[in-house]
């Protein structure tokens, strides 16, 4: 009955302790972060960011501790939430920010919504999509899909979404997070084609919080990667190495996971599906590769350049 908006929250949050319920749609979802340390005795040291929006704009929402195992997998991009008894805090200044699909959307960057088990105990409700009413004015999820033929013209660090047919997937590899640290990043290389270029998308896929998807990427699957960043070699030969890498807000989907995802309505996704219908599966199968060592970006041909 009595709802507030993100815009009203930004204007009035300092003068209030209790806030009216919020109705928002999730537009972006970060990977799950574990911040436990041996000396600190915490039961569930987890945290995850979401970017949520209503008709007034977009704001960060932070899920803390034991709410993460309970809610992280249920709250997807596109999910509509009713939030009651939440806290408002000033924004953490160093977190990564996804690039919104709608560049006109207002971003409230000074504060964030904090969801906790206590102080106050947050109540989260998921509203099924068929019960969402147009008069609530919630924004749709928008994407920035690109084709392989468009990739060569994009600048370094540009944010985009891609869909392609997997032709190569490498083994999982590890890289140290810090030079002498104990922690590793897990990643694998993949190639995907979309019929718009002779070249594939070269994708550096870090393990996001979707192990069930990351472990099952294989040739001939339709792969969707969102919030990818363009990496291009800015040195002497800029065209030689251009690839895409995951960001903190990347989501990865493979065949079997696409149903009901908001991107299925996107024009470029529909064009890709039309293209796949013109392809012979047997011909594509012959060109696929799995596993092996994949040195990339490739070292120069001679040691002097190296």
Automatic annotation (TrEMBL):
InterPro entries: NA-bd_OB-fold, RADX. Gene3D superfamilies: Nucleic acid-binding proteins. It comes from the Eukaryota. GO terms for molecular function: single-stranded DNA binding. This is RADX protein. It comes from Haliaeetus albicilla.
């Amino acid at each position: 009955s009595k709802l507030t908006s993100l815009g009203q929250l930004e204007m009035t949050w300092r003068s209030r302790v209790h806030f009216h319920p919020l109705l928002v749609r999730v537009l972006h979802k970060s990977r799950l972060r574990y911040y436990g340390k041996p000396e600190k005795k915490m039961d569930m040291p987890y945290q995850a960011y979401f970017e949520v929006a209503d008709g007034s704009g977009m704001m960060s929402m932070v899920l803390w501790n034991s709410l993460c195992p309970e809610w992280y997998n249920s709250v997807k991009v596109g999910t509509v939430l009713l939030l009651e008894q939440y806290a408002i805090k000033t924004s953490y200044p160093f977190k990564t920010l996804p690039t919104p699909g709608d560049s006109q959307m207002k971003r409230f960057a000074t504060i964030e919504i904090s969801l906790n088990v206590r102080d106050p105990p947050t109540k989260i409700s998921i509203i099924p999509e068929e019960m969402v009413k147009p008069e609530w004015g919630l924004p749709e999820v928008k994407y920035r899909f690109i084709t392989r033929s468009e990739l060569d013209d994009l600048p370094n660090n540009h944010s985009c979404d891609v869909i392609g047919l997997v032709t190569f997937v490498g083994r999982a590899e590890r890289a140290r997070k810090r030079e002498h640290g104990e922690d590793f990043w897990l990643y694998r290389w993949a190639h995907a084609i979309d019929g718009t270029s002779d070249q594939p998308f070269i994708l550096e896929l870090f393990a996001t919080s979707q192990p069930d998807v990351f472990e099952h990427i294989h040739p001939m699957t339709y792969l969707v990667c969102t919030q990818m960043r363009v990496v291009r070699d800015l040195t002497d030969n800029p065209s030689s190495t251009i690839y895409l890498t995951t960001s903190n807000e990347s989501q990865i989907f493979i065949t079997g996971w696409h149903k009901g995802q908001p991107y299925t309505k996107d024009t470029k996704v529909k064009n890709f599906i039309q293209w796949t219908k013109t392809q012979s599966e047997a011909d594509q199968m012959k060109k696929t590769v799995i596993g092996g060592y994949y040195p990339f970006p490739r070292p120069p041909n001679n040691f002097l350049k190296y």
